[in-house]
Amino acid sequence: MRTRERQEDVCMESFSIDENTVRYEKRIAAESAVRLVESGMDVGLGTGSTAELVIKRLGYLVKHEGLEIRAVATSKRSERLAHQLGIEIKTLDELPELDICIDGADQVDSKLNLIKGGGGAHTREKIVASSSNRFIVCVDERKIVPTLRRAVPIEVLSFAKAPVSARIRDLGGTPVLRMQEGTQFVTDNGNIIIDADFGAIKNPEELAVLLSQIPGVVEHGIFMRPTEVHVGERKGVRILS
Ligand code: 5RP
């Protein structure tokens, strides 16, 4: 039986030299976050390409090193992957309080405010993160910015598309309906996504409150202060908290 350290070395060897830098950085950030997971923990699983690296790493540890965890997934896609890899999946009804949640993000500012929802899963991601004692975010270094400025993904009831778009304009934003393969993107919850561009977001906390107050908004993608952000860089992983 090889030691855990050795197994990690083996896994590291699978980073081929032709793997691009961004993927490499996501991967080392994901691996760094997974080191916080211990047997017996209940774990929230995020959504997106970085979260998938987290899930794959956890699946590896479950299969090869006897890691025993139970998990709640933030999307059908993550749930499918985790299940395929032998991770025990539960619902939030079964596990209302989780030890740790590990997820990616689209942007992280200097105060560790986040924009999430590039994959349209931010509603469940926020619920699972807020049900977890620790919320760990892993990103590649390109996601770190002084000020958030990506369009904010907003999950909206389809019925409320027009009034919510009008309210976003009132707040100075430009709403764009998210499309996928020529039709409206539909979330796992059966709703639409409006990506709202506000330019540089100087006060994310205030914008978060204003967006939450709009009738028809299910959830927006501004997240506040995770426990830690693991940033994958060429030279290694930097942890911000
Ligand atoms: C999905 C998310 C993702 O965490 C975010 O879009 C980052 O994705 P990736 O890891 O693929 O860059 O919020 O809703």
UniProtKB/TrEMBL annotation:
Keywords: Isomerase. The keyword Acyltransferase does not apply. Pathway: Carbohydrate degradation; pentose phosphate pathway; D-ribose 5-phosphate from D-ribulose 5-phosphate (non-oxidative stage): step 1/1. One of its GO terms (molecular function) is ribose-5-phosphate isomerase activity. Its EC number is 5.3.1.6. GO terms for biological process: D-ribose metabolic process; pentose-phosphate shunt, non-oxidative branch. The active site is at 125 (proton acceptor). It catalyses: aldehydo-D-ribose 5-phosphate = D-ribulose 5-phosphate. Homodimer. Catalyzes the reversible conversion of ribose-5-phosphate to ribulose 5-phosphate. This is Ribose-5-phosphate isomerase A. It comes from Candidatus Syntropharchaeum caldarium. The lineage of its organism: Archaea, Methanobacteriati, Methanobacteriota, Stenosarchaea group, Methanomicrobia. The gene is rpiA.
